[in-house]
């Protein structure tokens, strides 16, 4: 297929593009800066919706990953505005441009997040579960609704609800490695909150899977089938690194350091299952946390 990818230089996109090209697909990058539009890249202005529909001719599939990093820095009013405005408006304008294609692409895989579900304790969450409450849940709901113009144009739309992506190259795991290696890692809050995670290898594998699986549409949870509590995650990471995990971060300290981000990300609990992926026979390379961490960190089992 001819696949257009936004956010191609981010953590996920940087891993996805080589996978697609090695699988025989032709990848074109959708970039914000015209100077980066080299070769087959297509420049667009997501804030104003400037995208020449003629450049989309021949595109079979679109993977839309672009958006402000939610885990960097405190959530000031300006940061929260950037988180929302980098997702909802640009997604809607991209979908409007795709809908004008003659013909439009066959499939759009648009990133979302398990933040859609909010904090739900130990409730088992599937793609059929209703949205939760809070800032991220509201953003994710509006983000997914922004894909409606593509759906109205007959494009198969998959809203990929992505969990905590594990990779030493970036994201949550990369931020945890230094304190854990120094022996100062520990649980956050009471440690009972569920973390629904996915190894980067499985996430890009899941994206490839939904691109070619015609019966998948709507929400798809991109998480491993075995979520763990924060306490379990902490113990497992310490075990893999061979380091103690005896210095917890109380909830009040997390809130003091990170503000609203602490409640929405660090202390939030979402026990999510990848029902749609499993029902369409996606085989996880790393269904269990310890195996995923050992692979990602190059730590063989003892």
List the helices and strands and how they pair.
Layout: E1 2-6, H1 11-22, E2 26-31, E3 42-43, E4 61-64, H2 77-85, H3 88-99, E5 107-113, E6 124-125, H4 135-145, H5 148-152, E7 156-162, E8 164-166, H6 171-181, E9 194-195, E10 197-199, H7 200-212, E11 218-222, E12 228-229, H8 230-241, H9 251-258, H10 260-266, E13 271-272, H11 275-279, H12 289-297
Parallel strand pairs: 1-2, 1-4, 2-3, 4-5, 5-7, 6-13, 7-11, 8-10
Antiparallel strand pairs: 9-12
Helix pairs in contact: 1-7, 3-4, 8-12, 9-10
What does this protein look like?
- With 302 residues, the protein is α/β, with parallel strands linked by helices.
- The protein has a domain at 2-165 and 196-223 and 270-285: NAD(P)-binding Rossmann-like Domain (Rossmann fold, 3-Layer(aba) Sandwich), CATH 3.40.50.720.
- The chain contains 12 helices and 13 strands.
- It has a 7-stranded parallel beta sheet, sandwiched between helices. Strands 6-13 form a two-stranded parallel sheet.
- Helix 1 links the parallel strand 1 (2-6) and strand 2 (26-31).
- Helix 1 (11-22) packs across helix 7 (200-212).
């Amino acid at each position: 297929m001819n696949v257009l990818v936004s956010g191609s230089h981010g953590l996920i996109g940087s891993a996805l593009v080589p996978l697609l090209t090695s699988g025989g697909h032709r990848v074109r990058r959708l970039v914000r800066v015209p100077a980066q539009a080299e070769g087959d890249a297509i420049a667009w202005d997501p804030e104003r919706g400037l995208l020449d529909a003629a450049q989309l001719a021949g595109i079979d599939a679109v993977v839309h990953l672009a958006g402000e990093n939610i885990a960097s820095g405190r959530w000031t009013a300006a940061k929260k505005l950037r988180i929302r405005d980098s997702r909802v408006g640009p997604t809607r304008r991209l979908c409007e441009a795709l809908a004008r294609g003659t013909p439009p692409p066959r499939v759009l895989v648009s990133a979302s997040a398990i933040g859609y579900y909010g904090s739900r304790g130990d409730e088992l969450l599937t793609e059929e579960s209703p949205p939760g409450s809070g800032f991220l849940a509201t953003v994710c709901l509006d983000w997914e609704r922004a894909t409606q113009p593509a759906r109205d144009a007959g494009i198969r739309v998959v809203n990929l609800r992505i969990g905590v992506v594990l990779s030493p190259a970036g994201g949550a795991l990369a931020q945890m490695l230094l304190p854990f290696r120094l022996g100062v890692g520990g649980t956050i809050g009471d440690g009972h909150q569920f973390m629904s995670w996915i190894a980067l290898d499985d996430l890009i594998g899941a994206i490839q899977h939904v691109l070619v699986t015609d019966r998948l549409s709507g929400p798809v949870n991109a998480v491993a089938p075995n979520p763990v509590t924060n306490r379990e995650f902490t113990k497992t990471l310490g075990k893999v690194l061979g380091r103690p995990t005896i210095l917890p971060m109380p909830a009040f300290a997390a809130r003091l350091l990170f503000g609203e981000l602490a409640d929405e990300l660090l202390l939030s609990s979402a026990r999510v299952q990848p029902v749609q992926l499993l029902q369409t026979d996606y085989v996880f390379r790393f269904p269990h946390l310890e195996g995923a961490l050992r692979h990602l960190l190059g730590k063989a089992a003892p």
